[in-house]
C-alpha cells in the first residue's frame, strides 16, 4: 500500500465483507434450506437459520433411493461423479503429457500437423457438436458405459499446451546431460521430466478434477441408465419434478453434497488451484 | 584413456550455413585442448559434435580409435560439463553423480565407491545428500565435474563451464580444473570465449573464427607468433596494436615515422604491422621513433596503458607505472618485436626472429 | 515451431506417444465436426433411409427463422450481461484486495470458491433464491412493491440466469485481475502518489490502463463462457422458457437436435457455433501471441 488512509481501509474491508456476504448468500440459503422439512420450505420464504431436519434429510438422501425421485441414492451418484472426475483427470494428464513430450522432444514428419489437430479441439467444445458426437458414441456402442462417459472427454489441448510450455522452459542441457549419462527417451521421461513436472501435474489435477466433477451436458447425452448417473444428473432430475412439487429440502441437501468436494479442494489447495487456473488459460 | 581424432569435420545447417567448416584436429591422449574464439565461431558446435549432441554433416570423429559419428553420446565414452551445470534439480548430489553409472548397470557397491572417491577429490562429500538448489554456484560446479569424473570416461568435454561463476571463483576453479585434469590424465576438450582462461588452461589452444581454425599451438606460440591478425587481436590483453605500414626494402613507414629494419625485408608494399602494447616504450633521444599523441591514460597499478594516435592510427602502449608523461610522446620498438601480416589475407608474413619461425606450425586445416 | 536443441531420434516412439490423444481427437472431435458440416448440407428422409444434398438450404432457413435470429440476439445480450457483471465485480474485488496486504490471502480464499461450483448447481441455487413462491428475494421484492416472476416474465428469467452465470465467473475474473494488479510495479504507484494522485485516481489513470491486456483476455474468455458453458444453468432452471425467453444458441442446438431430432438444422446451427468459437479462439490466440512477444 502506498499510503495509509484509515477510512479508505475500513471502507475496503466493508466492501469486501459485503461482497462476500452477497457471493455466499445462495450457498448459505442452500445450507439452511437443507436442514428444514419440505412443509417449512413450501410455506413462505426460507428461514435463515438452521432447522431440525439436517440429519434426517441427509441420511434420506445418501441412503434412500425413493427420496430422490427414483434416482439411485446419493452415495451411488457421488461415487459415479468421483470415478468420472478421477478418470478424466488421470486420462487427460496422461495423454497430454505424452503428446507434449512427443511434440517438444522429438522431431518427426507431421509434427506440425499433430500440433494443429490437437489445437483444433479448442475450437470444438461438446456444446457445438452435440448430435454428431452422440451418434458416434452410439455407433461405437459406448452409450451408458464408463468408456463413453469419460474417453471422449480426455482429449485436452489446454493440458497439452501447459506441458509443452513447461517443457520448453526445462533447460536443453538437462536432456543433453541425461543423454550423456545414458538415458534414452523412456528413462529421461521417467527419471527427469516426470519428477520435474510434479507441480504442474498437481495444479492440473485440481483444475481437471473440478472440470470432471461438474460435467453436465456429456453425461446428460451419454446416460439413460440411472446406474451411471452422476450428482449433476441427480440435480437435474430432482428439479424436473414429477407432479409439480420439487422436494426443495432434498434438492438443497443434494446441492450441498455436489458442491462440497470441489469447494474444499479449491480452499485447501488454493495455491495449486490458482496456479493451474492461470497457467492453463495462458 | 584415448586420443580424439577430428578429420575434416563440418556442420552445415539446413539453408547451407556452415557453422563449422572442415576442421581437423588431433588430440593426444591426456592432452588438454582449449577451443577458443568469439561467440558464433563454431567452437561449441564442434564440441557438441564430438559429444554426439549434434549430428556431423561431414568428416569423421574418432575417440580412442573408434569412429563415433553414428554413436549415441552415451556410447562414446565421454563425459560433459555444461555451462549451466545441468544438474538434475530433483535429485540429490549423490543421485546426480550416480545416475550415469546406474544407467550403465554398474553394481551398487562400485557406484558407491566411485561416488565417494569423486566426492572426496572435489571436497563435496558433506553435500552428497543435498539437492542442487541448496548449493552455491561453486559447489554446483564441483558436482557437475564430479558427475564427469565418476564415469572415468575416455575424454572430458567442457562447454564454457566457468562462465556462470563470479570472477574470483572462476580463477580458483580454473586452477582446480587444471590440477584435476593433470591428476587424472584424462584427455580434455574445453570450450571458452575467454582468452585468459584459454591461455592458462591449455596444453594447446585452438583459435577458431567463423567455423575455421585460425591457429593451433601452445599458449606461448599463439601469443608470440599469432598466425593472423584475428589471432593477434583476440589473444592477449590489451589486444595487439594493428596498424597500417608500408615496406620499401628494409624501411618500414608507419604514418610519419620510418624504421630501419636493418636488412630485414619480409615483403614490400603495404603491410599490417602488429605490435604488443608492452613492446612499445618511450624512445631514447636520437632513436628512430613514432610521434605519439596521448588521448587518455588507464591506470592499472602495475603499469599504465596509454591510448593515443600515431598519425591517424590509434595505438595503445603499456609503460611502467611511474613514467612521467606529457601530451606528446615518442614511441620506439625493437625491430624483432614487430609482427607482419598480409594486408589482404590478414595471414602472418614470416618475421625475422629465427626461433619463432622454426616453431611455427602449419596453419589451419589442410 | 520450436523443439529442443537436441532431440531423440526414435522414429516410431513419437507417434506412439501422440496416438491416444490424436485417436480420441479424430474420433470424437474432428469426425463429428466434419459430420455436422456434411449433414448441414443434407436432408434425411423421415425414416432415416436416405439423404439428399440440399445445399445451403438449412442455412437459408436458419437465417430467415425469426426464432433463430431472436436466439442469436438473446445470446448476445446474455453474453454482454454476464460478461460485464462478472468482470466489473471481479475487478472491484480485485482492486479492493490489492489494497490490503496482511488480509489479502483470507479474502482471496473467501472469494475464489464459487469457481468450483458446478453450473447446474449454481443455476439451481439462484433459482431457489429467486423462487417465486418460496424464494428469499421475491419475498423482499414484494415488500417494496415489485412482483418477481421468472416463470412468466421472460426478462426476469433472463436476469435470473445472468446472475447465476455471472456469479460463478466472478472468482475467475477476480483472480486474473488480482494477478494483473499485483504485477503493476510498486514504484509506479509510489511515483504517482508523489505526483499527488490519490488512490482512486491512481486506479483509474494507472492500474486500469495497465490492466487492458488482462481485460481484453478476460472479455474473450467470459464471452466464450457465457455462450457455451452456461448450458447447464439454462437446462436445469428455465429450460429455455418462458416462451423461449432464455433459449440461447447452444440450448437451441440441443433442443432442435437432441430433443426435436431435426438433424439438418441442428447441424447447420452447430456449424454456425463452430465459426463463432473459431473467431473467439483466433482473437484470443492472436492476442496471446502478442503478449508473449512484448
TrEMBL record, chain A:
<feature type="transmembrane region" description="Helical">
    <location>
        <begin position="113"/>
        <end position="131"/>
    </location>
</feature>
<feature type="transmembrane region" description="Helical">
    <location>
        <begin position="7"/>
        <end position="31"/>
    </location>
</feature>
<keyword id="KW-0997">Cell inner membrane</keyword>
<keyword id="KW-1003">Cell membrane</keyword>
<feature type="transmembrane region" description="Helical">
    <location>
        <begin position="143"/>
        <end position="163"/>
    </location>
</feature>
<feature type="transmembrane region" description="Helical">
    <location>
        <begin position="82"/>
        <end position="106"/>
    </location>
</feature>
<keyword id="KW-1133">Transmembrane helix</keyword>
<feature type="domain" description="ABC transmembrane type-1">
    <location>
        <begin position="78"/>
        <end position="269"/>
    </location>
</feature>
<comment type="subunit">
    <text>The complex is composed of two ATP-binding proteins (UgpC), two transmembrane proteins (UgpA and UgpE) and a solute-binding protein (UgpB).</text>
</comment>
<keyword id="KW-0813">Transport</keyword>
<keyword id="KW-0472">Membrane</keyword>
<protein>
    <recommendedName>
        <fullName>sn-glycerol-3-phosphate transport system permease protein UgpE</fullName>
    </recommendedName>
</protein>
<dbReference type="InterPro" id="IPR000515">
    <property type="entry name" value="MetI-like"/>
</dbReference>
<comment type="similarity">
    <text>Belongs to the binding-protein-dependent transport system permease family.</text>
</comment>
<comment type="function">
    <text>Part of the ABC transporter complex UgpBAEC involved in sn-glycerol-3-phosphate (G3P) import. Probably responsible for the translocation of the substrate across the membrane.</text>
</comment>
TrEMBL record, chain B:
<keyword id="KW-0472">Membrane</keyword>
<dbReference type="InterPro" id="IPR027417">
    <property type="entry name" value="P-loop_NTPase"/>
</dbReference>
<feature type="domain" description="ABC transporter">
    <location>
        <begin position="4"/>
        <end position="235"/>
    </location>
</feature>
<dbReference type="InterPro" id="IPR047641">
    <property type="entry name" value="ABC_transpr_MalK/UgpC-like"/>
</dbReference>
<keyword id="KW-1003">Cell membrane</keyword>
<dbReference type="Pfam" id="PF08402">
    <property type="entry name" value="TOBE_2"/>
</dbReference>
<keyword id="KW-0762">Sugar transport</keyword>
<dbReference type="InterPro" id="IPR003593">
    <property type="entry name" value="AAA+_ATPase"/>
</dbReference>
<protein>
    <submittedName>
        <fullName>Sn-glycerol-3-phosphate import ATP-binding protein UgpC</fullName>
    </submittedName>
</protein>
<dbReference type="InterPro" id="IPR015855">
    <property type="entry name" value="ABC_transpr_MalK-like"/>
</dbReference>
<dbReference type="GO" id="GO:0005524">
    <property type="term" value="F:ATP binding"/>
</dbReference>
<keyword id="KW-0997">Cell inner membrane</keyword>
<dbReference type="Pfam" id="PF00005">
    <property type="entry name" value="ABC_tran"/>
</dbReference>
<dbReference type="InterPro" id="IPR008995">
    <property type="entry name" value="Mo/tungstate-bd_C_term_dom"/>
</dbReference>
<dbReference type="InterPro" id="IPR013611">
    <property type="entry name" value="Transp-assoc_OB_typ2"/>
</dbReference>
Automatic annotation (TrEMBL), chain C:
<comment type="subunit">
    <text>The complex is composed of two ATP-binding proteins (UgpC), two transmembrane proteins (UgpA and UgpE) and a solute-binding protein (UgpB).</text>
</comment>
<keyword id="KW-0997">Cell inner membrane</keyword>
<keyword id="KW-0812">Transmembrane</keyword>
<keyword id="KW-1003">Cell membrane</keyword>
<feature type="transmembrane region" description="Helical">
    <location>
        <begin position="268"/>
        <end position="288"/>
    </location>
</feature>
<feature type="transmembrane region" description="Helical">
    <location>
        <begin position="202"/>
        <end position="221"/>
    </location>
</feature>
<comment type="function">
    <text>Part of the ABC transporter complex UgpBAEC involved in sn-glycerol-3-phosphate (G3P) import. Probably responsible for the translocation of the substrate across the membrane.</text>
</comment>
<dbReference type="Pfam" id="PF00528">
    <property type="entry name" value="BPD_transp_1"/>
</dbReference>
<dbReference type="InterPro" id="IPR050809">
    <property type="entry name" value="UgpAE/MalFG_permease"/>
</dbReference>
<dbReference type="InterPro" id="IPR000515">
    <property type="entry name" value="MetI-like"/>
</dbReference>
<feature type="transmembrane region" description="Helical">
    <location>
        <begin position="12"/>
        <end position="34"/>
    </location>
</feature>
<feature type="transmembrane region" description="Helical">
    <location>
        <begin position="157"/>
        <end position="181"/>
    </location>
</feature>
<feature type="transmembrane region" description="Helical">
    <location>
        <begin position="71"/>
        <end position="94"/>
    </location>
</feature>
<protein>
    <recommendedName>
        <fullName>sn-glycerol-3-phosphate transport system permease protein UgpA</fullName>
    </recommendedName>
</protein>
<dbReference type="InterPro" id="IPR035906">
    <property type="entry name" value="MetI-like_sf"/>
</dbReference>
